[in-house]
Design brief:
alpha+beta; seven-stranded antiparallel β-sheet; six-stranded mixed β-sheet; globular
Length: 950
């Protein structure tokens, strides 16, 4: 038998040449030919329809798909270049078991950072598909010298860039292939000497799905669009002082206004019926839009509706069960130890110190002098009498120095003797008689000054209380003077030193000289006993003529302190230590008491200890329970999916949700079919006792914290409608509270395990099924101009009258809203901290005595209101264009001059800068709108958004 390979060996050369030609055809000629044939077939067969047209061109489905793929691959490669590090020194790395020297200045793909065996930082780079470590000292990060090209997020943005490139061609802007090379060099910060092989890097980054020629073609579009955008918007993005100040006023100018709503629905009856062509045109306009309560544009497409099933675990219920188990095991020793360790902070009973009532007695003594002047002098000299009590309350707040000044009381006795020589107020006469007796008796018992806190407080309090009861100020003066002798031995020495401090105090004595006549009387007998001490005192007389009035300050200082009430006598003044001794008694009087450890407190501590010890196990059991329930549902979902794929697989037995809930101490429920608007309405409504159970699930809000994003809150709308490819019964988790993964010790309030139990996909009802809805939307659009015209007529009527709305539009007075002051924008947290930003203010007020709010007060509404000055009248339409408001601005705050000064002082704050940038983005968006009008861009279908690129 002949060898079958004999023929092959005989004609091997010819066969190899033929196979080579076939391979060349398969890899080079076949792909473009296949694309061409598919394009022709698609065009002829209608499977490659026109997607977008413009003046002079069009793009079909395959064109859009090619642009999208090339753009996404190009931006992926550029991002990979930005994530590179450049070796600046020769470095040796271990690559596949061999030591390989990196090229100095060469760029390598960056993977991440790590540490080596010596705990030294290293860079991780990609070397021909292998991750290798490079010493940190051998590399440096690249900072791009050119503007990176951002990835488009929708087909609409992709076509906008294509149109910009077309406009660049019209204006003569040329981007060459050399410009692409320069862009890559600047992006990587390399030169001709160390330029990497971009084609090889592109192949690695895109897995060979984009060659360098295709990449260059796409880059010509991207760079032309970027250059055109920079040229066209160079002046658009300049922040003028007028724009900055306008944004400042949006945050800081607040107005109050009168408003009257004109309902657009009231004018629908005046609109004629639309024709079939008009109804069809409106249906075509809104068939690809979802309806929105805050949008004036009609939408007839139905959103996806989902019925969710869920298990709910409540932390407090798990906590209570753990507490009930722990409580009996808590011993009395633990309770007593906790009480002793925490009684100073948790069980301290606030009690007033016993000295608190004492100040009331000096207050009485002050009241007594007020009463004595009228008693002693029924009208002779009323002025000095009120002044003495008025002065006395002023002196008590003074420092201890005024107490030292009364040391001049002994010398004051001499001027006091001179005072009776004066015309003499009737108050002096009665003061002499009783004052001398009391003064004589007191010197013998004047020593107790040193024991003021203990002994004299009680004695002085009783005696001072007696004085006001007699309505006799002289008794108080004589009692104070009686204390002078014991303090004399010490004050005599400091007395000459105190005149100096008395000199700065003349301000107080000046008004107090009038009450002095009350004291001189008791001091007259004092000089008899203290002739010697008064001799040095005369030196003080020239300056201390004021001391006599200062005797009252001495009496007044004790007012805040019971011991001081006795010291007010001139004696504490001569003795500086005496006032110092009176100060320390205050803290010593304080007492501390604690709640008794009775049965009630023991139970309270037992509960505290039980809660403390139960929190951690309760949280762990809650987590375990919901995860176990989740596993049950997940296994059911997998079995259900398998049964749907395999024809011979039997469907799984439906789950007994109630039994699962009881097993894991959870609760089960199911929602009706809901879309995101239904859930949003539930979240915005105030909770009520009769809310259905699923409202609690719809309102669940989980909070997480990130170092870069700050605080973020997510609701069911954010997590349950983010992926329409989620299968039925695939469980997901939602936390009502702070996510435990965020590192916070606070356990979540509630945990939900939920799944899609029934789904009604998004759909577009046929026109016949929603014709009434389309007609109603058409009539509302036609009624808006009628309502605006009526509102403008009423506004002109009010403006011509120059009066408030309530006085001109009397028939509608009950519906007129008087707003609370509001600004255009409200300050919020800035991006980078919590993800929030300044937002539109809410407009609230009252109408007919009832609180109301303006629904849909959008940007156009605010613009119309804040264009008015105080007293002006205008009209403003809310965002959904359901109401036209007649607006009269009543007042504004703060005034214009004050706002301008504050603006110059504050400068451009982060909030103002944010509003400026938002205004600039609106300008750019309007510029794009103008570009589309110039090119007459028309979409034949809704552009795709939120791309996901694998």
């Amino acid at each position: 038998m002949a060898n079958p390979l004999r023929v092959f060996r005989k004609y091997q050369y010819a066969l190899l040449v033929g196979f080579g030609i076939m391979l060349m055809f398969a890899f080079v000629v076949a792909p473009p030919l296949n694309d061409y044939l598919q394009t022709r077939a698609g065009t002829v067969g209608g499977q490659n329809p026109v997607v977008v047209t413009w003046k002079g061109g069009q793009l079909r489905e395959m064109d859009i798909a090619r642009l999208r793929t090339w753009h996404l691959l190009t931006t992926r490669f550029l991002q990979r270049l930005l994530q590179r590090v450049e070796a600046v020194e020769a470095a040796t790395v271990n690559w596949k078991g061999e030591q390989v020297a990196l090229i100095k200045g060469m760029s390598y793909p960056y993977v991440g950072r790590s540490v080596d065996a010596d705990n030294s930082p290293v860079y991780q780079i990609l070397l021909q598909g292998e991750v290798v470590d490079v010493p940190q000292t051998a590399v440096r990060s690249i900072s791009p010298k050119v503007e990176p090209i951002a990835q488009a997020s929708s087909e609409e943005e992709l076509v906008q860039r294509f149109m910009l490139a077309e406009k660049a061609k019209i204006m003569g802007v040329v981007i060459s292939e050399a410009a692409v090379q320069d862009y890559l060099d600047n992006l990587c910060d390399v030169t001709d000497a160390n330029r990497p092989n971009y084609a090889e890097l592109l192949r690695e980054a895109t897995s060979g799905r984009l060659d360098f020629k295709q990449f260059t073609a796409q880059m010509l579009i991207e760079l032309a669009a970027q250059r055109m955008l920079i040229m066209s918007q160079g002046g658009l993005l300049a922040a003028t002082p007028e724009l900055i100040y306008e944004c400042y006023n949006r945050l800081n100018r607040r107005v109050s206004a009168e408003l009257l709503a004109v309902d657009v629905a009231d004018f629908v009856a005046e609109v004629p019926e639309p024709s079939d062509a008009e109804v069809t045109a409106l249906y075509e306009e809104g068939k690809d839009r979802f309806p929105s309560p805050m949008s004036p544009e009609p939408g007839f497409k139905r959103r996806e509706r989902v019925a969710f099933g869920y298990f709910q675990g409540v932390f407090d219920e798990f906590l209570q069960r753990e507490m009930d188990a722990i409580r009996p095991n808590i011993t009395n020793e633990q309770i007593e130890r906790y009480y002793e360790e925490n009684k100073a902070t948790e069980f301290k009973m606030p009690e007033l110190p016993p000295d608190e009532p004492a100040p009331s007695t000096p207050a009485d003594t002050q009241d007594a002098p007020e009463a004595t002047p009228p008693a002693a002098t029924p009208g002779a000299t009323p002025e000095p009498a009120p002044e003495s009590p008025a002065d006395t309350p002023q002196t008590p707040p003074a420092d201890d120095t005024p107490v030292q000044e009364p040391t001049a009381e002994p010398p004051a006795a001499e001027p006091a003797a001179a005072e009776p020589a004066d015309p003499g107020s009737p108050a002096a006469a009665p003061a002499d008689a009783p004052g001398s007796d009391a003064a004589d008796a007191d010197p013998a018992a004047g020593d107790p000054q040193d024991s003021q806190p203990a002994g004299q407080d009680s004695d002085s309090t009783s005696r001072l209380q007696e004085a006001p009861s007699r309505i006799d100020d002289v008794m108080l003066a004589s009692f104070v003077g009686a204390q002078d002798p014991p303090s004399d031995p010490e004050p005599q020495e400091p007395a000459p030193q105190e005149p100096a401090p008395q000199e700065p105090a003349p301000e107080e004595p000046a008004p107090q000289e009038e009450p002095a006549p009350q004291e001189p009387a008791p001091q007259e007998p004092a000089p008899q006993e203290e002739p010697a001490p008064q001799e040095p005192a005369p030196q003080e007389e020239p300056a201390p003529q004021e001391p006599a009035p200062q005797e009252e300050p001495a009496q007044q200082e004790p007012d805040p302190q019971e011991p001081a009430a006795q010291e007010p006598a001139p004696e504490p003044a001569p003795q500086e230590p005496a006032p110092q001794e009176s100060a320390p008694p205050e803290p010593t009087v304080e007492t501390v008491s604690y709640k008794p450890l009775d049965d009630a407190l023991r139970e309270e501590i037992r509960t505290t200890l039980a809660r403390r010890d139960a929190r951690q196990p309760a949280q762990e059991k809650l987590e375990k329970a919901v995860e176990q329930a989740r596993g049950v549902v997940e296994r059911y979902a997998q079995q259900l999916s398998r049964a749907q794929v395999l024809q011979d697989a039997a469907p799984p037995t439906p789950l007994d949700y109630e039994a699962i809930a009881r097993q894991y101490n959870l609760s089960h429920n199911k929602t009706p079919l809901l879309d995101i608007l239904d859930i949003a309405q539930i979240q915005q409504a105030d909770p009520a006792d009769d809310d259905p159970p699923h409202y609690e699930f719809a309102r669940a809000t989980e909070t997480l914290f990130g170092q870069q994003s700050g605080m973020m809150r997510r609701t069911l709308i954010d997590v349950a409608f983010d992926d329409q490819n989620i299968g039925l019964f695939m469980p997901r988790r939602l936390v009502d509270g702070i996510l435990p993964q965020a590192g916070f010790p606070i356990p979540p309030e509630k945990l939900f395990i939920y799944w899609r139990e029934e789904v009604q996909p998004e759909e577009l009802p046929p026109l016949d099924g929603i014709r009434d809805e389309v007609v109603a939307a058409w009539k509302m659009r036609q009624a808006l101009p009628l309502a605006r015209t009526k509102a403008e007529q009423l506004a002109k009527q009010v403006a011509d009258a120059g009066k408030p709305l309530s006085e001109v539009l009397v028939d509608n007075a009950a519906n007129i809203i008087r707003s609370n002051p509001f600004s255009w924008m409200t300050r919020g947290a800035l991006p980078g901290s919590t993800g929030a930003q300044p937002m539109l203010s809410s407009v609230t007020g009252t109408a007919n005595g009832q609180p109301v709010s303006i629904a849909g007060a959008g940007q156009d509404f605010m613009q119309a209101v804040f264009d008015l000055n105080v007293g002006q009248v205008g009209v403003a339409v809310n965002q959904p264009q359901r109401f036209v408001y007649i607006v009269r601005v009543e007042s504004e705050e703060p005034p214009e001059e004050q706002r301008r000064d504050a603006f110059f002082a504050a400068g451009i704050t982060p909030e103002v800068d944010y509003l400026v940038r938002m205004e600039q983005s609106d300008i750019v968006r309007d510029w794009y709108t103008g570009l589309e009008k110039d090119f007459q861009i028309t979409w034949q279908r809704t552009p795709e958004r939120n791309w996901r690129f694998d």
